[in-house]
Specification:
By secondary structure, the protein is an alpha/beta fold. It has three domains: 62 residues, Archaeosine Trna-guanine Transglycosylase, Chain: A, domain 4; 108 residues, Transcription Regulator spoIIAA (2-Layer Sandwich), CATH 3.30.750.80; 191 residues, Vaccinia Virus protein VP39 (Rossmann fold, 3-Layer(aba) Sandwich). The strands form five sheets. The chain has a seven-stranded mixed beta sheet with strand order 16-15-14-17-20-22-21, sandwiched between helices. Strands 2-6-5-4-1-3 form a six-stranded mixed beta sheet. A five-stranded mixed beta sheet has the order 7-8-9-10-11. A hairpin with a 2-residue loop joins β12 and β13.
């Protein structure tokens, strides 16, 4: 062990429950160095675990709640346990999924996604990079990927510049694909770019939502907003939707959306792709008197664009109200939030506020979350981050 970190009584209580983080305000004395392996002790010097120091919004990430080593045997046991779950819960016709889900698999700050024959390692901080060599060795021994990519996705509260992180992101083992990688979700084809990690072109955590909606698209007109590369649009088309409008601010993503239609032998010219801010698109449809039977709202938690700044906490009720103005009576609203700091109760409040603005009532049909390859650890409330509600609006 290279160092010791003393935490206060508040942190001690959380660590004893299995929580995997130590915040700077909980540190007694000097903050640890980034990447420093630490024995974590409480106010009375009792050992609470072993972790690694960081320099971002966290002081340390806790990997063990005993006094054992952070060695290859420990890491491979954690990885084998994570892989065992995915071998059970991931459908054989699904080749894009999460293999390791960070804190929820006992590996704070580390995620691994499989995209066909390629693995993408996602780190929240360079402090976690000490695991890379043994992780790549495990992937090559257990999964035999053709290539392994590294990328970073720090918490929004971490103000460090990702471009300064070391090691640098990119291909770290194997070889690169010669073109986009074709993966499947329960048989639906999607084209992803592993070297664009972590946003390769598909959000696998929404799989359970698309699966639940599968029998309900038939004959309906669908508006998919904040569409990214249009997984919901493709699913709706495969499910027999009569009309699909796909809206995203990015022309690049809409081009890839059309490629995903083609990958499923669907003629994209039969549907509409609109490069526009979602609020402006909804207002255009309202002025045209146009209505839809299903509207998908899956906005980012926070973003900047030429159209302005979007913050889900501030703007979600307004977004719901705008969507409801173009949702046909009896239509379905599919609303999502991927912000782990937002409770289900708070999220429901946003939707109810939007309903109130336009004086409409609704029936909650289904509440959903991320799929089982994105498990949520009982001692880590932030793990239950994805909230999706499907409403029938009267």
């Amino acid at each position: 062990m290279s160092g010791r970190l003393v935490v206060n009584g508040y942190s001690e209580r959380w660590l004893q429950q299995g929580f995997p983080w130590v915040y700077p305000k909980e540190v007694v004395g000097k903050r640890p160095r980034i990447g420093q392996v630490l024995q974590i002790v409480g106010p009375k010097k009792q050992v609470l675990g072993v972790g690694v120091g960081d320099a971002g919004f966290l002081a340390a990430r806790v990997y063990r709640h005993d006094d054992g080593p952070l060695d290859r045997a420990w890491l491979w046991e954690r990885l084998d346990r994570a892989a065992e779950l995915r071998d059970i819960v991931v459908d054989p016709e699904t080749t894009g999924f999460r293999l390791v889900h960070g804190e929820n698999d006992g590996l704070p700050g580390l995620r691994v996604d499989m995209w066909g024959h390629y693995a993408v390692i996602i780190l929240d901080s360079p402090a976690v990079a000490f695991l890379l060599d043994d992780l790549v060795a495990w992937l090559e021994a257990r999964r035999e990927p053709r290539g392994v990519y590294l990328c970073y996705r720090p918490d929004p509260r971490d103000t460090r510049n990702v471009e300064s992180f070391s090691p640098s992101p990119g291909l770290i083992a194997g070889h690169a694909p010669t073109s986009a990688v074709r993966v499947t979700e329960r048989g639906m084809a999607m084209r992803v770019l592993p070297d664009d990690g972590p946003d390769v072109g598909m959000y696998a955590d929404m799989r359970e939502v698309r699966a639940w909606m599968e029998p309900h698209w038939g004959g309906r007109s669908v508006l998919n907003t904040f569409s990214y590369t249009a997984a919901f649009s493709v699913a709706a088309a495969l499910g027999g939707a009569s009309e699909i409008v796909t809206v995203d601010l990015s022309e690049k993503y809409l081009d890839r959306a059309e490629e995903n239609f083609v990958a499923n032998e669907i003629d994209p010219s039969m549907h509409e792709f609109l490069a526009m801010d979602t609020f402006k698109a909804l207002d255009r449809f309202r002025r045209q008197g146009r209505e839809f039977d299903c509207i998908v709202l899956d906005p980012p938690s926070f973003s900047h664009s030429d159209a302005g700044t979007w913050s889900a906490a501030k703007d979600y009720p307004r977004l719901v109200a705008s969507a409801l103005r173009v949702l046909a009576p009896g239509g379905w609203l599919i609303a999502a939030s991927n912000n782990g700091s937002v409770s289900p109760k708070e999220f429901t409040g946003w939707i109810l506020s939007g309903l109130k603005r336009v004086d409409r009532d609704a029936q909650l049909l289904k509440s959903l979350g991320q799929g089982p390859d994105f498990p949520a650890l009982a001692s880590f409330p932030e793990g239950r981050y994805l909230k999706v509600q499907i409403w029938r609006v009267l």
